## 1
Amino acid sequence: MRYRNKLGAAVLFLMLIHGLALFAGFFAPYNFAEQTRDRPFAPPTRLHFVDDQGRTHLVPFVYDAADMSDSSLHAPVTRSLRPIQFLVRGTPYKIAGVFSANVHLFGVQEPARIFLFGTDALGRDQFSRFLYGAQISLMAGSLAAGLSVALGGALGAVAGFYGGHIDECVTRMTELFLAAPWLYLLLGVRAALPLHVPEWQSFVLLVGVLGLIGWARPARLVRGIVLSVKERQFVLAARGFGASDAHLLCRHVLPETYGVILTQFSILVPQYVLAEVTLTFFGVGVGEPVPSWGSLLSVLQQYSVLVSYWWMFIPAIFLVPIFFAYFQISDALQEHFQSVPL
Amino acid sequence: MRYFARRLVHALVLLGALSFVSFLLLEAAPGDYFDEMRLNPEISDQTIARLRASYGLDRPLLVRYERWLRSTMHGQMGYSVAYNEPVWPILRVRARNTLVLAGTATALAWLAAIPFGILSAVKHDSLGDRIGGFVVSAVLAVPELVICLAMLVLALRTGWFPVGGMESAKIAGSSFWSRLGDTGYHLVLPALGLALITFPVMLRHVRSAMIESLESPFLRVARAHGIPRMRLLFRYALPAAANPLISLFSFSIGTMLSSSLLVEVVLSWPGLGPLLVESTLSRDLYVVVGGVMLSSMFVIGGSLLADLALFASDPRIRVRG
Amino acid sequence: MRVVYLRGLINLVAAAVLSSMFAAGAHAEDLLVTDNSPGHRGGRLVMALRSEPKTLNPVLAADETSRNLLECLTADLIHINRRTQKTESALAKSWSVSADGRRYTVHLRHGIRFSDGAPFDADDVVFTFQVYLDEKIDSPQRDLLVIGGKPIAVKKVDSYTVSFDLAQPYAAAERLFDGLPMLPRHLLQKQYQEGDFSSAWSLSTPQTELAGLGPFRMKEYVPGDHVLLERNPYYWKQDRNGVRLPYLDQIEFLFVSSEDAQLVRFLSGDTDILNRFGPDDFALLEKQAVAKGYHAYDLGPGLEYNFLFFNLNDLSSKDSPGLAMKQAWFHDVRFRQAVSGAIDRGAIVGLVYNGRATPLWGPVTPGNKLWFDPQIISSTKSLDRSRELLRSAGFSWRSDGTLVDSKGQEVEFSILTSSSNAQRLQTATIIQEDLRQLGMNVHVVSLQFGAVVDRLLKTHDYEACIMGLVSGDADPTPDMNVWLSSGATHLWHPNQSHPATAWESQIDALMQKQLVTLGYAERKRLYDRVQEIVAENLPIICLVSPDILVAARDQVRNFEPAILDPYTIWNIEQLYIQ
């Protein structure tokens, strides 16, 4: 089946990303909160293979802090080489919040710094923040999208299948949900919570809120499909055979909706990654200094940053293949379910 | 027809319920319009308390709701604390502008999404489709705000389009057609930006629906019959794909409205956006409720339209009703 | 023949007499002569506003945008010159103070007319103050006019003289008049008497019903889009050469709610003045200044002071043991001093504000020429000293560096800040990192503004907070409610029935005294002492004051931005386009 290749490649890629996120502490040379205050908005550190004397090194190296654009000031002074070291001991970190370790994949000796993606306004390494940010964004985004489509799909299927009052009820609820200013409820909920919400609680809250925001649209779409499918021949035939409602729903009707559900899922994940920023504005979401992709991208919302510091765009660029992988998975799964014969 | 009369009644009930729910939700959030004044050392607490009383903000929820309902019957929709004026006149002008923008952008987005969606479905899995998918992911990955700023910068660098506003400075006395042209000229950038923001999702849906339709048995039979490609596509596949797309259309109105808020703020289009953002953040109660009611009227209207279209297009629903 | 000549002569004489009377009448206008460089008439100025004005009614306007607009449309009796920060005469040609400082007699200019041609006299002044002081109208300005518990008594002495009686001598009385526009009795009295004043002069009021004494008058308002003002032909100022001000024909205010859009439109030449932009944009603006023909100005610190403070409320009636335990630390002045000593203000200035800010150790900024106290010690960051202070307060460190108090509790607290102010959020993050070096575990909680105010002033459910205030005026008096322990904006412990600490009662006494002291030198001495007490006891730990940043195209002449609101257009009548 040709979709196997597509599926395989995309799944592998996403597993790689999730692996990177899980072991963010290992892959990231610095802690996400570490501020290098004399280097705000520093461009990505340049890696060199050839040094001043013209010698080529196998392992790339960086120069000391003097490797800034003011090389005109001290021309012939020999700059100290700092080769990139692998499997170095650095600041301790936790894996999955449980296991402690302090070995990092790579690093350079102080006082040199290696900022692969540059730094932000407070001099924090963007590469490290990107990896740690994946922990929040990817997982919250996927979980919340899953919650949305599961909830929406279930409600929409029930509404479409049973029709009548249940359908009316659910449909009105979706319309109410889409229109009402839930923002204020959010503010109210946040006010009722204690001042400082512990990390995992705020994560669950974030997933819950995001998930509940987006259930209405999948519900409507699924309902539309179910409405037209339930009259199809094969369904009527199965019913004629005495199949129960539940059996009809799960075995015959729902598979028809998978296409829509998967498309919705693949669209919701990116939307939720970005929606998290707005939620943070209203007090729900991860607080400083914990990074998330949403907060990394929110810096780009300033014209001066967009124009002056191009490296802040790099996280956005990495999002593209990730979203693309989600699309590929949803395509492949859709094909799989299409290919199921009648 | 009875079905639609029923739907209309339901819509009205829904609007009523929505208004009450909005009041409840607004009550849940802490603070009110006078928060900023409370941090001003020059204004005493008593003055603020009296101000709140004069706008009726210290009354219980039900009393306020009842007064608002009465005011809405008279076409005022409550009183804006910030503007010291009834809400409806403030909303009316801006709502019209937002509709113009959203309508144009919807048309643009769908006009682009349908052909490209069909194309990518037909050429499904080819190199072109892959590249297209990548481009769509790219556009989706860019935050909405950045797209709007990019439009702004485009206008700045090229000077082809005016940067913001709805009419040029000296247009006041000119003829109707030149004013229309002037508005259209100002409309290009915001509509383009808004269409760009909403286009990727629509494209994905059209593509997905078309693929499903193209793979379905009856189409394979039709193809086996030798029916020409074009006819196959437009006369058989597209109508079958119409079901989810029509549902999607009713949704696109909702997303279009919320994205238009952002576009209006950045590109200074005088619609509901800047007003609602300010009122929401400053807690100008009745303007927010009015805005919610207005946008839900659009959404409910769109949903009604979609159900109508679904009814008309899909005979399977008509039979069962 | 002679009869005819005689009649002709009489006619001629009559005409001469009459015309000289008219001429005298025309020159009877008491115009104010300004000393700016003379310019020439013509042109239109375009400026962007961040939010829309809400009302044209000066009595009810509370938001900044409406007030800025009204500055162009109205005038007051005595005005504060934004550059010198001192008072100067406006509609009042001169004024005198009685010996006990309780009666101000104001002499108005003669022959002044409103923008619709109607004459201005003492009746308008009396009417205006009647409206401001009316309790049923709830003007936000009313509280300023209540001195010593009693509202100012306003009496008309004659057509051009008004007297103001205060219940007690009030040092800053002159400055009160700034920002209190004079209202036209002939247009508003009827509505006021009918009790309908609150709906007067909203934005949809037709131009025929509006009139003011400012340099401009309303021409057009398009909701959501722009406001257009045109020259007031009756304006009462002229320049050295006798040219009637304002120079500009028109001003257009565009509504551009996004800061970045404002920046982009200024760069593209759409607008002529950029009023207060963020520090991140300054470098960008400076770079293109010469090429695009404008200037970017860094005016130094304004009157805004940002600070960190702790919850010092008396929470014994509430049931929150966690907070009570933490308050034991907050109440200890050594703890607060240690925190203050650990904060790297230089980093805040450099990273958060790109260098466009001034570190503060007291609430009065160097921009306040008359009241800044240079004696306040500005200490640099010193972790050793902070550790010493903590040690003396009974704190100690575990082996892993965590700070614990005398009971062995880990020192952990949250700093609250508003999510709408990105700079304060970044400041909180820097302080979080700084305090980590002392072993404190600090969380940053960013909530929406309304939620923050609610916690600060209503529920008192917070631990520490970063906030910023802008003094209403350079004079200390508008900020009374921040320093008085009974004040509602005495943020760390508002509305006290009697002072909770000795130093707070000291501040109370000093502030009350400076209120009634009339000589500037003595008042300065008193206020300096207040600042010193604040610096010793640190109820607020002052951090930075952001610089005022503005920009204007080179064609705009006589542009003299100042650090007092409205920064760029305070001398709008003197601006002209080359």
## 2
Amino acid sequence: MRHRRRRPPVAVAVLAAVAVAFFVVPLVGLLQRAPWSELAGDLTDPVVRDALRLSIVCSVGATALAFVLGLPLAWVLARTDLPGRRLVRALVLLPMVLPPVVGGVALLLAFGRRGLVGQYLDDWFGITLPFTTWGAILAEAFVAMPFFVIVVEAGLRSLDTRYEEAAATLGARRFTTFRRVVLPLIAPSVIAGAALTWARALGEFGATILFAGNLQGKTQTMPLAIFVELQTNLGGAIALSLVLLAVSIVVLVSLRDRWFPA
Amino acid sequence: MSLDAVVGMTLGPLALDVTLDAQPGETVVLLGPNGAGKTTMLRAIAGLLPVDSGHIVLDGQVLDDPRTATWTPPERRSVGYVFQDHALFPHLSALENVAFGLRARGIRHRDARERAQAWLERVGVGTHAAARPRGLSGGQAQRVALARALAPEPRVLLLDEPLAALDATGRIATRRELRRHLAAHDGVRVVVTHDPVDAMTLGDRVVVVEAGRVVQAGPLADLRARPRSRYVADLVGVNLYRGSADGDGTVRIPDHGELVAASDVVGDVFAVVPPNAVALYRNEPEGTPRNVVAGTVEHLDVEGDRVRVIVAGPVPVTAEVTPAAVDDLELTPGTTVWASIKATEITVYPA
């Protein structure tokens, strides 16, 4: 026999409905204004096309950076008992709560031409990061990498260490063990972490505009282009917004098993 | 080729201090209750845990010795380890699991697969080469785990409760086979178990570990004939008493009365009475037996075609009788009985 759920009190139900409406109404607003017939034309506008291309380059670049640096970091946090691990974890997670604009200022002061590290990059190697595509990638990675690190660290923690021990007794060195045993077994976490990181990088605005500026074809990613286009070309802004909305929905749906277990 | 392990470690409440020697071609069984430190001992030998004090020496090569800061990581020890619930790599097929150790030691892909297939056939799961661990039964997984550990031909083979994960039917067949495969491995074999039947079937020599210490070691027959602790006596199923003997055969058991044995040992002694040498009567018997003790039946345990009758009294004793005798004597918990033991059936040895 099924248990009948009790109905919520009226006041709670009303407030919950308002909350749902609060999330849904803006989406409806966006969709009802969408110039569906001119969408193809809007998306081929040079500003929009550059923004699309740059967004893909920068978000994929930031995700790759998160993989290369974040995977070892997640391993250190999950599998070693290095002193100060808790502090390191707190520092890594800081960009998740820090306003991205503050992150942008901090990046500028560190990697800008006169910055703490940036002046040496410029003097010794002739490398300039701010206001370049590399700068945009760096800004996105700064903000998005924490997602990768926490998801992969959690995946490593939930992996039974006996698989690594079994590999070691079979003569596998630690890197072989990681590549042939650990990585395949935590692949779902790595994919989920990468997807979240990529989605966050794709939407990055504050840190990017402060550190990399807003140069069409160089650092003007989709969110920046939307901000600019809103004042001159509403159709383009809506078209780009729809693209980002579609991407968000795809990421949400593909990760549903992980975040919304039935 | 031999293993010399002296392991001193503190892990939470457990203070481990165990010495283990093993020769090639010999199976040493570490027998003891759960939490005695048996698995920790295996992990130390494999290099999965460093010892706090002591040493691990294999064929004269020091693998672990904190005094000289010597430590060899597990991947550079020639050790095969069969984990308690197998720890087969879930993302690899049975064949790839077995080939893993060969590949890690630099054997080429194709050769490794051929040798892995031969190992799978040798342990009787050749037809399951393509199966993932999740598709294998407990017995099949156990065989794959054994093949995986044996394939790189380690000098030491360590097995942690190899039969614990199997059900009763699979257990008997697997135990017999395991004995055969162990005999075919020419290195040192160390098996951890809490089951005396496993110990008896698999081991040439038994080291009994209790609360991190060795309480007795030797061939199983010696353990059976001369147990030196309550735990070992219970394992092999005999009555054990500790008392003092004065040389004329009388063994005084503090707080429990005395037994008369045909023995001239003097001093602090153990006395062992096999339960099948204990006869039970409803009325006080007359005649030759020197030892007759009264008591009440506390409990009856049916074990196959035998019944173990636990009798509480001044000298607590366990008797082993036939089910027919239980019926004849109308034995139930609470029944008053007399237990008689012939003096010649009691083994007395110095404690």
## 3
Amino acid sequence: MKKIIYLSIILFTASIAIVAFKSETIKRNIIYPAKDSVGSVKAFMSVYKVLMSPRCMNCHPAGDAPLQGDDNHIHIMNVKRGVDGHGIYSVRCSNCHQAENVPGLHMPPGNSKWALPPANMRMVFQGRTPRELALQLLDPKQNGGRTKAQLIDHIANDGLVGWGWHPGVGRTLPPMTRAALVTQVRLWIAKGAYAPGAKAK
Amino acid sequence: MITITVNGQRHDIDADPNMPLLWAIRDILNLTGTKYGCGAAQCGACTIHLNGEAVRSCVTKLDRAAGQQIVTIEGLSANNDHPLQVAWNELNVPQCGYCQSGQLMSAAVLLRENSNPTDQDIDDAMSGNICRCGTYQRIRTAIHKAAQLQREEAKSK
């Protein structure tokens, strides 16, 4: 009888240990997935496609003028970035762009935060390779001082970023939903935030 | 009821808050110096100052101006003697004149922020104001002249 009791205790303890180990593994898999450079880069490449789409890139130009349209042409009216990213003199963004889209085709799109990045933190997307853009996004000196968590939050919750999915009549949407983008950004970072190779396009 | 201050005068306006500010200025307050050009913020004829910024009133809703300070061409100076108006007169800048209120309101912001603008500064500030008569060269010359007048005026004070 004693043997049976001892055996039961041993089996019970062992089963608890196994269950605990399994649930810990599952938890770890959800919160801390193993680093995976291939999966990370794959996720970033889908993020890259969104960031290079007109709705994102037009306000992250290589020069000091914003871009317009699906062909990324330079903004008419000789618009300039200015020190604060809100334009200069009588050509300030909010002089035409309102807090919301003006209804109608070819009418000014709008958002209360409408602006380019400021001159001291230009956050250029245009012309960046996937590798360059990934490294730039991860560098607080080039990404507006953001940690990885803040970067995810910016993409998930910033109002001006969100405008990209509500751009008004006649403007194409980014190639995936915002929720899907956030998932890919999270995956990219969770799997190690790897930058694609120099030859990736 | 929406309260706006135009050229220093307070007005209570009973209108749709979505009405373009330009409509309120022209049709309700009868200040017709500000012009309707394109209705799409593309030409600059409707430029007014909203808290000092050269805003396109054709796409600006009335409710954006609620409680704010607006200046139209009628309020740019007390006696049509803003240095820009003096220079505009001296150099006979306008041809048909339709765009000129907007040109002056944009130029006034430039001169407020830059007392000695270069040609490039002028191009940067004024490229959003279209003139079908093509008075651009005279506008540029007049802005230089007005800047000079403004500097002289400042020195004499």
